[in-house]
Amino acid sequence: MKRKDLLKAAFDKPVTDAVPPGSPLAETARVPSGAIRAMGLSLNRIEANAALAETFAEQIARGEVVQELDPLLIEPSFVDDRIDRTSDPDFRQLVESIAASGQQVPILVRPHKGKPGYYQVAYGHRRWTACRELQRNVKALVRPLSDADLVIAQGKENAERRNLSFIERATFAAHLESQGFERSVIQSALAVHPAEMTRLLAIAREIPKSFIAAIGPAPRAGRPRWMELAALLADARARERLVAIIEEPAFRKVGSDTRFDLALTRLRATKAPADAPFTFRDAQGRAVGTAEPTAAGFRLLFDLKLAPGLDRYLLENLPALIAAYESP
Question: What positions does the domain ParB-like N-terminal occupy (predicted)?
Answer without folding.
Answer: 67-159
